[in-house]
Structures are given as structure tokens and as C-alpha cells.
């Protein structure tokens, strides 16, 4: 067993942090009561989660190749452009569909997981 | 690669798979169509991160291209689905 170098400890810490963050995002996605609250959760994975993995990858491959390896940043740039667009489109679609369905907007605090008419007020 | 880093990567992948399971639950349960689109978008994001972690695990930069494509197609798919939910057709 080879001892872990400082770079590997940094990479491991960054990866574990991103894992915890993505799990938090998934928890939010599955547990929050209303769609507009649930929309907030995945952006955790799209922003800080992706950045942590990117940093880990940069540290790992830079120490592996012996020179700065910054190719991964392209993925982050792409995510930074596309994630807000998707979120805006989805929010508008949800707003449109729920207005069409006659749902009360802003939604009740109980959320839309419970059938209509049985929400907590 | 030290066994410490390998263990950390394995733990990260376990955390990711838990996240995927939860998102898949939301994908199946709904309750609305836009919930399912949101869950699918999140699944794409986690798959992309998984590919990046696998790139570190196997020390190969071949995974980057796959991750890039994943980001691109995730965006195209989610945008098209959101547009469909908004308008009833994708290309007008």
C-alpha cells in the first residue's frame, strides 16, 4: 500500500464534499413538498458539486501529468451556460401548466405532493 | 493511486448512487410532468459527475469527452422537454 500524498488527500476531500453535496441535492429533490421548492435543489449539483469535482480533477491530472491540465473547465463553462436556461424554461413551463390547471399560485405551504383539497393551509 | 484515494472515490460513487436512487424515485413518483423533467435533468448532472469521478479513478482523460456530450445532450433534452410542456410542440 502506497502512502497517500498531499494531492491525493486534497482530491479525496473534494470528491467526498461533492458527494455529500449531490446527496443533499437529491434529498431536496425527493423531499421538498412543492415543485418550485424542489427546483432549487438540483442547482446545488450543477454549481458547487460540479465545481468541486472539476477542482479535484484538475488537481489530480495536473499532478499526474506534471503540467496544468485545465480541459475540464470546458464542462463547467458549458454547465454555467446551460443550467440557468433549463431552470428558467422549466419554471415557466410549470407556471404555465399550473395556471392552466387552475392550481392556486403561489402554491399552498403543504405543497403539491398531497391531492388537491387536502392541503394543509 | 493509493488505496486511500480509491476508497474515497468508492465512497463518492456510493453517495452518487444514493442520489441517483432518490432522483429516480422522484422520476417515477411525479406527480407532474415537469417534476419528471427536473428529475431527468438532475440524473444527467449526476451521470456527468460520475463520469468525471471515473476519469480520476482510471486516470484517463477519455471520459471528459463523454462528460461533455452528457452535459450537451442533457441540456438539449431538458430544454426540448420544457419547450414541449410549454407549447405542446418542440419546433414551431
Main β-sheet of chain A: number of strands, strand sense, barrel status? none
Q: Which stretches of chain B are low in confidence, meaning pLDDT under 50 for 5 or more residues running?
A: none
Q: Tell me the series of helices and strands of chain B, N- to C-terminal.
A: HHH
Largest sheet of chain B: none
Anisotropy-based shape of chain A: elongated
Counting DSSP H or I runs of 4 or more residues, the number of helices of chain B is: 3
Mean pLDDT of chain B, nearest integer? 89
Low-pLDDT sequence parts of chain A: none
Task: Using the CA coordinates, give the radius of gyration of chain B.
Answer: 16 Å
Distance between the termini of chain B: 52 Å
Classify the beta-strand content of chain A into a percent band: under 5%
Helical content of chain B (DSSP H or I, runs of 4+): over 70%
Number of helices of chain A: 4
Overview of the molecule:
The complex is a heterodimer of chains A (121) and B (92). With 121 residues, chain A is mostly helical. Helices cover 69% and strands 0% of the residues of chain A. Chain B is mainly α and 92 residues long. Chain B has a single domain (3-87), classed as Helix Hairpins, CATH 1.10.287. Helix content of chain B is 86%, strand content 0%. Chain B has helices at residues 3-29, 33-58, 62-87. In chain B, α1 runs antiparallel to α2 and α2 (33-58) packs antiparallel against α3 (62-87). Classes of the chains: A mainly alpha (121), B mainly alpha (92). The interface between A and B is large, with 59 and 54 residues.
Topology:
The complex is a heterodimer of chains A (121) and B (92).
Chain A: H1 6-31, H2 35-38, H3 42-65, H4 73-101
Helix pairs in contact in A: 1-3, 3-4
Chain B: H1 3-29, H2 33-58, H3 62-87
Helix pairs in contact in B: 1-2, 2-3
Which properties best describe this structure?
heterodimer, A: 121 residues, mainly alpha, 4 helices, 69% helix, B: 92 residues, Helix Hairpins
